[in-house]
Amino acid sequence: MLEHNTQKQRSPQQIWLHRLSHYLPILDWGLHYRREYLAGDLTAGIIVASLLIPQGMAYALLAGLPPQVGLYASILPQIIYAFLGTSRFISVAPVAVD
Question: Would you tell me how many other CB atoms lie within 10 Å of the CB of residue 57?
Fold first, then answer.
């Protein structure tokens, strides 16, 4: 009995991109991102930033650290998770209420 290969033959670039997308999920969803989501995503980003930046600065001050540390703690996790995270619905930040 012959087994049929149901997958399409992939080019070396597609194989490389597929393997790399396991480590950087943004390569997978970023290529299929819909333009109509952009306005809502930008609005959500602005709202989240307006809440997280002052809250992160306040947590840093409560911990006896300079407020700049709070800025890093509120912005960098979001950026890193955008590239490395696998869930579209998650809160990553120094927040009191999730």
Answer: 20
DSSP 1: -
| Identity of the residue numbered 26 | I
pLDDT computed for residue 78 by the predictor: 81
Three-state SS across 12-73?
HHHHHHHHHHCCCCHHHHHHCCCHHHHHHHHHHHHHHHHHHHHHHHHHHHHCCCCHHHHHHH
Q: Which of the residues in the chain have pLDDT under 70?
A: 1-8, 93-98
Given a contact cutoff of 8 angstroms between Cβ atoms, the answer to whether 67 and 60 are in contact is yes
Instruction: Report the alpha-carbon distance of residue 7 to residue 27 in Å, rounded.
Output: 20
Residue 84 CA: distances (Å) to CA of 29, 39, 41, 77, 90? 11, 23, 18, 10, 13
Per the confidence metrics, is the pTM higher than 0.85?
no
